Amino acid sequence: MVHSAMLLAMEVWRHVAKCQHHVISRAQLIESNVRPSGVRHLLRTGELERILPDVYRIPGTADTWHQRLSAACLWGGPGTVASYRSAAVRHTLDGFEAGPIEISVPKQRQHGGRKFKVHRVLVDPKQTTAEDGIPVTNAHRTLRDLLPTLPPARAERVLDGALRKGLVSLASLKRLVDADGGMGHRGVRAMRALVNARDPEYQPSASELQTRTRQWLVAAGLDWFVEEQDIYDDDGNWLARPDCPFLDEKVGVEAVGRKYHTGKEDFENDAARRSRLASNEWLLFEVTWRDFVEPERGAQRLSEIRRALDLRKPMAAAAAARRREQSVSV
Fold first, then answer.
1. What is the 8-class DSSP label of residue 64?
2. Taking the alpha carbons of 105, 111, 115, 116 in that order, is the dihedral positive or negative?
3. Residue 306 has what pLDDT?
4. What is the pLDDT of residues 29-47, one digit of tens each?
5. What one-character-per-residue DSSP string does 248-276 give?
6. φ, ψ for residue 255, nearest 5 deg
7. CB 13 within 8 A of CB 127
């Protein structure tokens, strides 16, 4: 009978650990009907190994970032969640990769670990969720925490990425900042500024690279393009939809990433699009990540775009004159 109870307890705690990336807390072992002497036995026989105070892993399992994050949350105890950059990784926010672990721990918990960053704050359970067995701040709370810690341009890109992936919506973000009432938490203030700067019908750029390209042009003073505008020829035939077209100058700037431009069909479609634009006097400049990683290359590309726009000022003036004539005739 005793042996059967031990086997059942082992089955229970192993299942719990498996759902948490093969880590488990002392409290969870006790809840699985493992006695304190049983915990010591598991450690002595090597069935478990201690990785944090009162947190254990199953030896032989992969030592992954997710396992360490799960262990940190177990160390923090009830109410502890992955947060800030760790939460950004869990939500696949643009530009965040597995790195130093960050958790939010209830204020009453004493910080005894040195392997991760601890934010001493009690997070409202309504602002949390679970991702692959790991408690984490939800997307809205993660943005609230992160945005004020980022440079303005990067905060813009991170928010656009969350909107593009459907993690949040402008409407839901507006409800969050409106519910705060006054100025409130600095994260709410940062989010309010970003939300208020966007029209209710705002649609984020199709990719992080496109967002970066738009910001790059605006910072250079080249801000009169119309993002993602359909282009037609004089007969009304569709030509293309450049990311950042300067309509009067007939100059387009396109953010080109590998994800959507590597296959044979992509190559052929891109070539056909460039041909249609060229036959209608359009110049197309393609921008890649190298233009941002290599400053000299980026500066050269920006100089080329600026020169093309300058050379086409007469074309732009003629287009503006035609619009004035059309408005007068109407």
1. -
2. positive
3. 95
4. 999 888 899 899 999 999 9
5. TTTEEEEE--STTS-SHHHHHHHHHHHHH
6. -85, 120
7. no
Backbone dihedral region for residue 46 (phi beyond 0: left; psi -120 to 50: alpha; all else: beta): left
Edge-first strand order for the sheet with 102-105 is: 117-120, 102-105, 81-82, 134-137, 128-131
- Indicate the average pLDDT of the chain: 86
CA distances from 144 to 148, 188, 207, 227, 269 (A): 8, 6, 22, 27, 40
Distance CA(290)–CA(257), nearest Å, equals: 10
Percent of the chain topping pLDDT 90: 46
Q: Distance between CA 64 and CA 154 in Å, rounded?
A: 28
- H helix or E strand, kind and range, residue 285: strand 283-287
Q: Look-up: residue for tokens 């598991």?
A: 42
Is pLDDT above 80 for 157?
A: yes
DSSP for residue 27: H
Q: Token pair for residue 225?
A: 């393009």
Could you give the percent of the chain with pLDDT greater than 70? Answer: 88
Angle between helices 152-164 and 208-219 (to 10 degrees): 140
> Which residue did the predictor score with more confidence, 321 or 88?
88
Q: Which of 109-113, 148-152, 184-188, 326-330 has the lowest mean pLDDT?
A: 109-113
